[in-house]
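Design review, sub-item: ligand-bound model
Attendees: FS, YL, KQ
YL presented the inputs for the magnesium ion complex:
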Amino acid sequence: MKANGRIDPPAQMTGAPSRRLFAALAGAGITARFVGGCVRNAVLRSAIDDLDVAVDKPPQDVMRALEAAGIKVVPTGLKHGTVTAIANSVVFELTTLRRDVETDGRRAVVAFTDDWLEDASRRDFTFNALYADPDGTLYDPFEGRADLAAGRVRFIGDPDTRIAEDRLRVLRFFRFHAWYGRPPIHGASYQACARNAGTLGSLSGERVRKELLRTLEAPGAADALDAMREAGVLDRWLPEYEGSSRLRALAGREDQPDGLRRLAAILRADADPVAIGKRLRLSTQEALRLEVMLAREPAMDIAGGERAWRAGIYRLGNGLYADRLLLAIDAPGDWRAALALARRWTPPELPVSGGDALKLGLEPGPKVGALIAAVERWWIDGDFAADRAACLAELERLTRGMNGA
Ligand code: ATP
Ligand code: MG
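KQ shared the predicted structure:
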């Protein structure tokens, strides 16, 4: 594989931890190059999260070389050729060059190789098969840089074959399109995804969930989701998809994209959050959040002004209230001011409790809960102005009324 370009390497590639790592490997006769997302993002000058490194020797050799240099190394996935190195507290994931021996649409049996082009050929999209030396020398065997510049997500090799090897690539196609793509979508790649949409049932809920949420977080999520629906990719995993118009409106409101909130924005009003939570393996907490985001009650009274906002924040909690607010696209009122309040105001705690009711001589039981709830409603209706003494007085009044009845 020949070098055919140059990037301005980011600090993560040129810094002391990287230099130390690459020197240790070179000292043992191992050639290493940054690969995948970190090189792609370096080309784009966007943020880099994972530092993936490809190496041309088996993992045992890599481990030995790093240990000899005093670099901490963890055998995270020896069978797949992956070890994790920690140099000066910076984490690098090192994977031996591989080629596929056998594929079954999900998991591949791989063999190690020292052929860089073989390793590049088994990667999914042209701009994901970029390699770079720490000095910025670039290896781009499939014209990935041109595709990246054009916003074109393109399979390496024949798209149908690549999808047959690993069906997850259909979802990855739309995810990368959402992040890095621009219209027009690459026709041959898209059509292959559409042809294979019916085979996605064999994927696991976990993997679909991860791809879907990362797609939703992307700047181009709305267009990507519409393309996914058109390709039939959502039929099996998200038949509740309603369309992207609420997502588009939500994206204009958010200052930070949130995958789960965006999921709530694309679902039909009658979608069952419990079923979706199960299908997409959401955690209990996530499923509950989705349920609250989709619930019609309590209705969002944004036009009601600060009093209504405070009542809502108290009932739902700051985070969920903000979620509901951002999602209440058609509700009239100053949602920006309401959101600002949800960000800065901490709701007070109800100054009375069941214990106070018992002190008034009430028997423990459901009546106590009902009374406290009544005081709470009164306290909220009064915009939380009543202090403990006033709440106790109201509790007494209600208790007397009840006993009198
Ligand atoms: P991100 O920034 O979203 O993590 P990434 O490019 O690092 O993007 P990963 O899913 O972390 O994506 O994978 C790292 C690299 O491994 C990819 O760039 C690609 O070269 C390769 N790869 C990952 N999954 C597959 C797959 N299913 N099929 C082929 N190649 C893959
Ligand atoms: Mg990555």
